[in-house]
Specification:
By secondary structure, this protein is of the alpha+beta class. It has 9 helices and 6 strands, in the order H-H-H-H-H-H-H-H-H-E-E-E-E-E-E. It has helices at residues 12-35, 43-108, 114-120, 124-129, 139-194, 199-222, 230-240, 259-269, 278-281; strands at 286-288, 298-301, 307-313, 316-319, 328-331, 339-344. Strands 1-6-2-3-4-5 form a 6-stranded antiparallel beta sheet. Strand 4 (316-319) and strand 5 form a beta hairpin. Helix 2 packs antiparallel against helix 5 and helix 7 (230-240) crosses helix 8 (259-269). The longest helix has 66 residues, at 43-108.
């Protein structure tokens, strides 16, 4: 009699595992299918991300400019102090030589006074603290010692000031290097994003910018009835002559500019010296609302005032926007950050 064997059924645990694995694989496959199109952002997303990086780079640029200006001032101050210390040391040496001559004359006339001997072998401050010895000196000797004491104190103070400024200079140089690296890092990241665009996408973005440039130029031309005059007019005319020059961080002209570099250069042509950074420039004149602006006034954007340009009339600004652009007109409403206020120099 033949035996009948029941076929072996897969266990419930094995079925569950296989089912779960299959479901997970299907889910991963579906997610990959959905993720694939978003791996490469479109031109509008790239532009938005690049614009943000450029904004961050410009913030760092203005901090870089501030550190660079501080370094320049500190170096000048340190040089002045060091020159003063050198002159003071020469004067001190002459005073000591003069006192030595008095001692020599006294020796020839009968020996060196003990108080003079004390001075020549110890610090004048210590000597003058011993008031009992003053009576043993002539008025000429007392005067010479007091001059020496005063000069020594002055030199000590100047040397301490120079040491403090040298420490500050070292800190500033470190900050300068860090900000430079930050700017370069943001620009490199932006360029990497731009490199993901196709030639067609790059051409489309360029065409959009050209249309915006033509629109801004046309609006400036329409508003020419608002004429600029005086220093502001001269500065604006100077800035107009630089249209088309490239933006380069830290540049102050005449071949390239950053935003505050352009405004400081333009006003320098009008005989006005502006501070180096946009934040510092915001405090050198009368503040204005948008309705009070006239051609040539400085206009500031973003909450931290890291961008500045010159008002061009009819709601337009003449400025050096950011890396990858040139000095140009642009609507105040498309700068990328809020208009804060204007300043009439």
């Amino acid at each position: 009699m033949a035996s009948h064997r029941r076929s072996k059924q897969p266990s419930r645990t094995r079925v569950t595992v296989l089912t779960t694995a299959a479901a997970a694989a299907a889910a991963l496959s579906a997610n990959a299918a959905h993720a694939a199109p978003s791996e490469k952002p479109g031109k509008d997303e790239v532009k938005a991300r690049v614009d943000k990086l450029y904004e961050q780079a410009e913030q760092a640029t203005e901090k870089y400019n501030g550190a660079k200006e501080k370094q320049r001032k500190l170096q000048k101050e340190i040089s002045t102090i060091q020159d003063s210390v050198a002159r003071g040391q020469e004067e001190l040496n002459k005073l000591r030589d003069g006192l030595g001559s008095l001692a020599s004359a006294q020796y020839r006339s009968g020996g060196i006074d003990s108080s003079i001997q004390l001075f020549l072998s110890s610090d004048p401050d210590d000597f003058l603290d011993k008031a009992s010895t003053i009576d043993q000196l002539s008025s000429q000797q007392v005067g010479a010692l007091k001059k020496i004491q005063g000069k020594q104190r002055e030199l000590a103070q100047e040397r301490a000031e120079a040491a403090e400024k040298l420490d500050d200079l070292a800190t500033t140089r470190t900050e300068l290097g860090n900000k430079k690296k930050e700017v370069q890092g943001k620009l490199a990241e932006a360029q990497k994003l731009l490199n993901t665009l196709t030639a067609k996408e790059k051409a489309a973005l360029a065409a959009e910018q050209q249309r915006a440039d033509r629109s801004s130029t046309a609006r400036v031309d329409l508003g020419k009835d608002t004429s600029a005059s005086g220093r502001a007019g001269a500065a604006f005319s100077a800035a107009q002559s630089q249209i088309g020059k490239p933006y380069v961080y830290g540049a102050t002209g005449p071949s390239s500019y950053d935003c505050s570099g352009l405004t400081s250069w333009a006003y320098a042509q009008a005989g006005v010296s502006l501070p180096r950074t946009s934040e510092a420039q915001s405090g050198i004149g009368t503040r204005l609302t948008r309705s009070q602006l006239q051609v040539g006034d400085l206009v500031f954007f973003f909450n931290d005032l890291h961008h500045v340009g010159l008002y061009a009339g009819n709601g337009q600004v003449l400025h050096a926007p950011r890396t990858g652009t040139v000095v140009r007109y642009e609507s105040m409403d498309t700068i990328g950050g809020p208009f804060m206020f204007g300043v009439r120099v």
